Each structure stands twice: as C-alpha cells, then as structure tokens.
Amino acid sequence: MVSEEASSVSITIYRAPGRGDGAINVNWPQGYALITETRTVHLPAGDATVRFEGVSEGMFPESAMVTGLPQGVREKNRDARLLSPQGLVDAYLKREVSITRADKATGVSRTQDVFITAGPDGGVIFESDEGFEALRCTGLPERMTFSEIPAGLSAKPTLSILTTSPQAVTAKLTLTYLASGFDWQADYIATVKQREVQEKPKMDLFAWLTVANGGNQSFANANMMVVAGEPNRERRTDQVRPTGGALIIRCWPMQRTHQVPYNPGYISAPPPPPAYAPMMYEDEGAEIMVTATRRSEKMMDMASPVAVVVAEQEDLGDLKLYRVPERVMVNAKGQKQVAMIVKPDVTFERVYVANAGNYNESSAAISYVLRSKNDAENGLGVPLPAGRVAVFENSFAGPLLAGEGALPDRALNNEIEVEVGRSSDVRLSVVSTRQSRRKQSWRAVVTNARDHPVTFEMEIPHIISGLVRGVEVIDGVPTWRVTVPANDEAKLSYAIKLR
Fold first, then answer.
1. Smallest Cα–Cα separation from 370: which of 322, 331, 404, 333?
2. CB 124 within 8 A of CB 247
3. DSSP letter at 122?
C-alpha cells in the first residue's frame, strides 16, 4: 500500500558544518534537516509493505524511524530509482524495447523492436536490424516505447517498510528522518541613521532568515524551525541521491570535416547597435526650456524592512532554536526568507582600523568597521547567528550601499564588529626610522581629511620595546588607539624588539 503524502510535516534545518560566513551552495545545499511527517495508512491483517512516497531525496535511510505501527517495523528499504526517461533507459539496459521513427527513404513511420546496448550516460546506443545506432542522431523524429514500468521505479523518492498487523487497522504513523540538501543563513541589513553632531551614531539592524531546499520535493504547510550553533555531527560519505532525469543525447557529425559548413557569424563581432533616431518636434524653431528642482539639503532616510512575521527564538540546550510562528511552504529547488531579528536604534562606534605590518611609507587608505556590544544598553541583547551584513548609508541621493561584511556567531555581551570598506579620507603611513641589532624604530602617521574627529586603532604585531604612551595591549596585541581631530593628523613613534 502507498502513502502518497503527509497530512502534516515539521522541518528543522541545520546549517552546513564548517561553512562559516560563506554563501549557501544553491545547487545542493550542504546542511541537513530533521523532518517529521504524519501519515495515515490502512493496514490489512498479516504482512504488509507500506511505501512512503514524496520523502526528501536526500534522506538518510538509516536514520528513519516509524512509530504508530501495531508491531513495529520488520524491514526498511530506500527506493532511489526514479521514474524518468533516464531511469527507464537504465532499467531497460540489455533489454528489448520498441522504437517508432520515420523511414529515411519514404518518410513513413514504422515501429520495430530494438535492443538497448548502452546508455543512458553519454548517449543511448541500440541494436536494430540495420545494425548499431545512436538514439535521435538521424535528424528524424524517434520515439521509444516500453512495455511496462520496471519494478523498483517510482515517480517520487520512496521509503518502503515491511510490517505485520494482527488485524486490519487504520494507523496514524509518524515518520522521522534526517535528510541532506538543506541549509540556512542569516542575512543582515544595517541602516545607518541620520544624527546630530552631539548624538551617538545609531543604526537599524534587520535580519532575514534565509532557508534553502535543494531537493525536488516541496513541503507544503510545514512547521519550520532552524537551529543556530554547532552541533557535533560525525563526517559521513556523500548520500546517494535518487537517479533520474532527462536523457543526455550525444551524437557525432554525419559529414566529413570539409563538408561541415563554415559559419563566420560564430566568431565575428556582433553588429553595432543602430543609432538613436533624432528627436522630432512639432515646431523646429521652438525654444526648449530646461528646468530643475533643487534637491532638499536634508538626507533621505532609508526605511527598514517591515516585519509581518518574525521567527521566535528559543533555547535548545546550548544551541538556539528559531521557530517560524506560521506554517509555510518550503518549495523544491527554492529559497524562502522570513524576518528573524528586528532591532531599531542600535548604538555603535565607527572605528578606523589597521595593522602596522600591512603599511609602509606610502600613505594608504584604511579600513573602517562598525563596532558595538551585544547588550540591551546598546539596543541589542539577543543572540546573533553568523551571516552576511549589507550596510547602507544615507545621502542626498537617498540610501546607498556602503559595503558588505560578515558577522560570526555572537552571544550576549559579545563585541560585534563588521568591516564595511576602506576610507580614502583616513590614511596611514608607517616608516622605519632607525635600526640596531636589538631593536628597530618606527614612526606611524595617520591623517584625517574628514570634517569631524575619527577614532583610529592600529595593531602592532611585534614586541614593543619599553612603554609607549597611547599603546595598550588589547586581546594580547599592542594597539595604538587615538582620536584624530578633523582635518588633522596624529603621530606615534615606537620601537620593536628584534631579538
């Protein structure tokens, strides 16, 4: 008996292990999911085979559990061969089929029995009365006919079980299994807000929960959750995906080389686009007036996305669980986004950062980061899963993308830092001034061409000789931290130990 679909489904998705802040593999996501389905079946008395159709094609069959059976499961089988043109040819390899095609001489269709000798990868070769031929390589219509559907081919990925029931019964079963081909990530949008000079800089932080399903099965009306963190999972071999799909037909040229027509159009440049037609006016002598409206001096604020449904965060041991409060459709070969985090008015600090080892006497632009602390005082105070961050700044032309950075997993009270880009207004040069056997002297000069002070930090990846005013050890690295006045510069002289 066949259970064609689930009456309800729940999907819990885990991120790809070790992916970090990289993008999701859209062809076949490298994460996994725990899927729980509820199905109702009618069992006869005695032995019965139950086929669960429409399971995820990335199912790990060894993880499948079925509850609700009168006497449990005696045997499980994963049916990985799908009903498709490729699957049919593969199943009929070394067997006889019928082929209908037009006669080369008369053009009349005729049907004959042929023997498939090779395929489906790399083309289909069959043996007929005329000898060995390749399918669909004559240029004439051809159609293959199969006498029956081979055993073991199913239209959907299927899990079958063997069970026994003492009497006929209608059972409500729960099927739970792990499946590959899923993944998720957080995608942040940080919108820097306008402020007065005396005000602290603020931004609106919004995060999308992006879920990817790389399989060919959709899950309708699903209760969806994702898990943040790094659960331990042993590495295993790649899961065998169901076979199936379209036939790959390969043919060879029917002429000799000198008979293949030469088409220079494949290698010549495309013709230039036609010139625009001149603008026509009713009165050639009419005076043309051009007017303009001066843009307001006030910057245009970017409106943050409006969240209608927001995922709810829960604790799952030492991990974090995000539950979508409404049932959703998880489409095959698709991605879905649901609001995950909405935090307006997050205070932050803009810091220009550099590593002294990456600079020389030539003045060079410096990277800048947006830095904050994940606590309620700064407008946050929620766990932040790893993801990409798009930073928007407001301008007279409206909101513009300032840069993109990455945010690793951040727990409560952790420091948050997103590198946005490089500034051409704040520059650094580091020059060696003197060297002896035991130490080397350096001078660093940072310039600020902006009309307001900036905060600058420079890491010195060496052992400092003596005490240097303005240099402190941060996370084990000597760091120069200074506020550079508007349209001014700051200098630091220091020495490092060579031995």
1. 404
2. yes
3. T
What number of CA atoms fall less than 13 Å from residue 421's CA on the CB side? 11
CA distance 63 to 6: 18
Neighbouring-strand partners of residue 354? 458
Q: How far is Cα 33 from Cα 421, in angstroms, rounded to an integer?
A: 35
Q: Which helix (H) or strand (E) holds 91?
A: helix 85-91
Give the CA-trace dihedral at 481, 483, 486, 489, to 10 degrees: -50
- From the number of C-beta atoms within 10 Å of its C-beta (0-12, 13-18, 19+), residue 459 rates as middle
Q: How many helices (H) and strands (E) does the chain have?
A: 1, 29
CB 336 within 8 A of CB 330: yes
CA R_g for the chain = 33
Token pair listed for 444? 């660093």
Q: DSSP string covering 338-370, please?
A: EEEEEEEEEE-EEEEEEEGGG--SS-EEEEEEE
Residues 6+ apart with CB under 8 A from 199: none
- Interval 132-177: pLDDT, tens: 878 877 767 788 887 777 766 666 788 888 999 999 999 999 999 9
Q: Which of 155, 2, 143 is nearest to 84 (CA)?
A: 155
By three-state DSSP, how is residue 123 classified?
A: coil
Q: Which helix (H) or strand (E) holds 318?
A: none
Answer whether 10's CB lies under 8 Å from 36's CB: yes
Cα–Cα distance for residue pair 348/203, rounded to 1 Å: 8
337-391 pLDDT, tens digit each: 999 999 999 999 999 999 999 998 889 999 999 999 999 999 999 999 999 999 9
Beta bridge partners of 237: none
Beta strand residue intervals within 64-218, DSSP E: 65-67, 73-79, 96-102, 109-118, 125-128, 131-134, 142-145, 158-165, 169-192, 202-213
Angle made by CA atoms 367, 368, 374, in degrees to the nearest 5 = 140
